[in-house]
Design a protein that fits this description.
It comes from Pseudobacteroides cellulosolvens ATCC 35603 = DSM 2933. With 464 residues, the protein is of the alpha/beta class. The chain has 17 helices and 20 strands.
Length: 464
C-alpha cells in the first residue's frame, strides 16, 4: 500500500460521508468506504422499490439512506460529499454543504489523487470510447498490466490497492467528471470539441472549460494530445501546461500522428514511422482513422509500431458504433446508437459510400442540428424520425432543400417508437440497401442510455 493511500484511509476513516447517487460507479465506492469503517449515507432520487436488491446489499453493511424526490434535503452535517458525475456541482444543496465545511469530491477525483500508475485519459465530444479502447488494447498487446475505467470498464477506486506503479491506467472522462477535477492525467487526449450536453452545461463556454480541466493541472513532463483539425482543440495550444502532441487526418504536421499517402504515420525529428495502411484498418470510417491517430500519439513512447499495426488489422470495433447487426434479404442493418450528437451521426453517414436509410432522433440536449441538413441531403435516401429532436432534424433537411434544392426527393417518416421506425425503414429498403440507427441525439426520452437503445434496436432487427 502506498503512503498516499494509507494517509487517505487515516483521513476518511472517522469522517461522516455522503455519497450522492446509488449508480454503477458509486456502489463499489460505497462498499469500499464501508470496508474502512466509514459512516456512510447514500442519497438517491429513486425509491427503494426502483433501486431493488442493491438496497439490501448496502443495508447489510450498515449504510444509511436518503431517498425520493427530496433526497437532498437531508444533506447536512457531512464532512465529505461524493458527487455523482452527472450532477451539477453548483446545486444549491451542494453549495450549502460546502459553505458548512463539507469537502465536495467524486470517485474519480480521489482515484486521481491516489493512483500510483501512469494515467492516460481521453475526453472529447466524439470518439472517446473507441480512442480509449484503442489505447488500452495497444498497451495490453504490448504486455503491460493495464486497467480500464471511467465511462467504460469498471469503477477503479475500490481496486486501488491492486494497482502498482509499473501498471498503466486508461480512462474515458466526460465533461461531467472533469468539471471539478483538481488533478490531470500524465497523458491527456482531447479527440475533438463540438456543441454537446448543452442541456446540462449552461453554455458552450462552460462545456469547453470542463473539457480543458483534463490538462489544467498537468506539469511540464506530462503530454497533451490534441486534434489539429478541430479549431477549438487546435486553439488550446497556448493554454497547455505539458508537451503538446498533435494528430491530424487532413493537415501536414511538423511532428505528431498524421495520415500521409494513405498511411497512418508518426513523425518525429523529420522522420516518419509507418504504423499501418488506412485500408488495413478493420473498423470503417474516416472518424476511426482520427481515433487511431489520437491513440497512436498517446502511446508512441510505450508501444511498438508492429503492435499497433496488429491491433489495427484485427480489432473489429466497439459495440453500438457502426455495428453490423444482421443482413436480411440483402439489406444490412447497422447499430450506431452511440451517435448522440449531429457530428457523430455525420461521421457515421460518411463511413458509407452509398446513400443509406437513416433512423434518427431522440432526447433533446439543446444543441444545434442545422449542420445535418447538407449531409442528409447528400448521404440519405430515406429518413425515419423518432423522439424529441425529430422535428429539428427534419427542419435541417427542409432548410437545406430551400437553400440548395438538394434532398427534395427524400421521403421523411415520423414514428412513435423504435420498433415502428425499424418497420418503416424495412418497408423502404430493398436488396443492397443499408439501414442505420444513428440518432444524432441522446436516448433519455425513451431509454436508460444509448446501450439500452442499441440493444433494443438489435433485438428488433434480429426478430424481423
Amino acid at each position: 500500500m502506498n503512503d498516499k493511500l494509507q494517509q487517505y484511509k487515516n483521513y476518511i476513516r472517522n469522517k461522516k460521508v455522503a455519497v450522492l447517487g446509488i449508480g454503477v460507479s458509486n456502489v463499489p465506492l460505497i462498499k469500499y468506504l464501508s470496508s474502512m469503517g466509514v459512516d456512510i449515507t447514500a442519497f438517491d432520487k429513486a425509491d427503494k422499490l426502483k433501486l431493488g436488491s442493491v438496497i439490501n446489499e448496502l443495508e447489510a453493511i450498515g449504510v444509511k439512506f436518503s431517498l425520493g424526490d427530496n433526497y437532498l434535503a437531508n444533506l447536512k452535517g457531512f464532512d465529505v460529499v461524493f458527487r455523482t458525475p452527472g450532477m451539477r456541482f453548483d446545486l444549491p444543496e451542494l453549495l450549502k454543504a460546502k459553505e458548512e465545511g463539507a469537502e465536495i469530491t467524486s470517485e474519480m477525483e480521489v482515484f486521481f489523487e491516489l493512483c500510483p500508475a501512469t494515467i492516460y485519459a481521453v475526453t472529447g465530444s466524439d470518439g472517446k470510447t473507441t480512442t480509449t479502447t484503442l489505447i488500452h488494447k495497444f498497451l495490453v498487446e504490448q504486455g503491460y498490466k493495464c486497467w480500464l475505467g471511467g465511462n467504460i470498464g469498471n469503477p477503479l477506486l475500490d481496486r486501488i490497492e491492486e494497482i502498482e506503479e509499473s501498471h498503466k491506467v486508461v480512462l474515458e472522462l466526460s465533461s461531467f467528471q472533469l468539471h471539478t477535477m483538481k488533478s490531470s492525467p500524465d497523458i491527456a487526449v482531447i479527440t475533438n470539441i463540438s456543441p454537446n450536453h448543452l442541456d446540462v452545461h449552461k453554455s458552450m463556454g462552460e462545456y469547453v472549460d470542463a473539457k480543458k480541466n483534463i490538462f489544467n493541472h498537468q506539469s511540464e513532463r506530462d503530454k497533451l494530445i490534441i486534434n489539429f483539425d478541430n479549431e477549438i482543440t487546435r486553439n488550446l495550444n497556448n493554454e497547455a501546461k505539458g508537451k503538446i502532441v498533435y494528430f491530424s487526418r487532413v493537415n501536414e504536421l511538423d511532428s505528431g500522428a498524421l495520415l500521409k499517402d494513405g498511411k497512418l504515420v508518426y513523425r518525429k525529428n523529420g522522420i516518419d514511422t509507418n504504423i499501418v495502411e488506412a485500408e488495413e484498418i478493420v473498423i470503417p470510417g474516416v472518424h476511426n482513422i482520427e481515433n487511431y491517430l489520437a491513440a497512436i500519439a498517446a502511446v508512441i513512447d510505450d508501444v511498438e509500431p508492429s503492435v499497433m499495426k496488429r491491433v489495427a488489422t484485427t480489432f473489429s470495433g466497439v459495440e453500438h458504433r457502426i455495428e453490423l447487426v444482421r443482413e436480411i434479404d440483402g439489406i444490412k442493418f447497422y447499430n450506431d446508437s452511440i451517435a448522440s450528437s449531429p457530428t457523430r451521426t455525420i461521421a457515421g453517414l460518411n463511413s458509407f459510400k452509398q446513400k443509406v436509410i437513416l433512423i434518427a432522433g431522440g432526447y433533446d440536449k439543446k444543441i444545434p442540428y442545422d449542420v445535418m441538413g447538407e449531409v442528409i441531403a447528400d448521404k440519405v435516401k430515406s429518413l425515419v424520425l423518432i423522439g424529441q429532436t425529430g422535428k429539428k432534424i427534419d427542419k435541417a433537411l427542409k432548410d437545406e432543400i430551400e437553400k440548395t434544392g438538394k434532398g427534395s426527393g427524400i421521403p421523411v417518416t415520423y414514428s412513435e417508437n423504435l420498433k415502428d421506425a425499424v418497420d418503416s425503414a424495412r418497408k423502404y429498403a430493398k436488396s443492397g440497401d443499408i439501414v442505420i440507427l444513428s440518432p444524432a441525439s441522446a436516448s433519455f426520452d425513451m431509454f436508460k442510455n444509448f446501450a439500452e437503445r442499441g440493444d433494443m434496436f438489435k433485438d428488433i432487427v434480429n426478430s424481423l
